[in-house]
What does this fold into?
Amino acid sequence: MTLIEYADSEMMAIDLANSLAGELGEALRAQDRATLIVPGGSTPGPVFDDLCAADLDWSRVDVILSDERWVPEDHPHSNARLLRERLLVDRAVAATFLPFYAPGDDPEAVLADVEAMLEPHFPASVGLLGMGTDGHVASLFPRGDNLRLGLHGEAPILVSMRAEGLEHTRVSLSARVLRGTLSLHLVIIGDEKRAVLERARDLPPEEAPVAAILDDATVHWAPE
It folds into this structure.
């Protein structure tokens, strides 16, 4: 794990957006297309605000969420909705977004079809992840019903996830897929999450799922 500390979150968002853009540019110079994994939540919004204006051939970039709530894209809690409002604008409007959600009450009925659509885009070129105060990453939650599968070395691309306290069923990329990303970044803000990160380094992934990806990640931290 590499840790980069910043004086404030604004500086971090600018620097991180520049890093992501640079790595996407390198990937596009080496191959026809690049895949970018991004999270939902509030933390990455300012990064998206800067990244969307990057001078890249966005028409050759495929964007995939790290996880999603099983709700339609027009739902207020949809990560896809956030993505369309904050990242897939400006120059990045030309990117191709590959959503997880398909109409239906439960994701299990369609996950195989979604995985077949996503499979050619892995390993991802660049990935940005967030972390919760319980140590979850993507939608790999410590008490999730499918956490064991999500952490397995031969896990499928996607796992459904339900846990106490979650309003909606989630769908998440597995730890195996996240770890396979060629350049992986984790962004966190504040002392509380910094403390969670430090504890996670000494915990098994079953207790702090973020531990499953730390060896492969560059962590970006700024105070609140």
The first helix runs from residue 9 to 30. Strands lie at 2-5, 34-38, 61-65, 67-69, 96-97, 126-129, 158-161, 170-173, 183-189, 217-222. The chain has seven helices and ten strands.
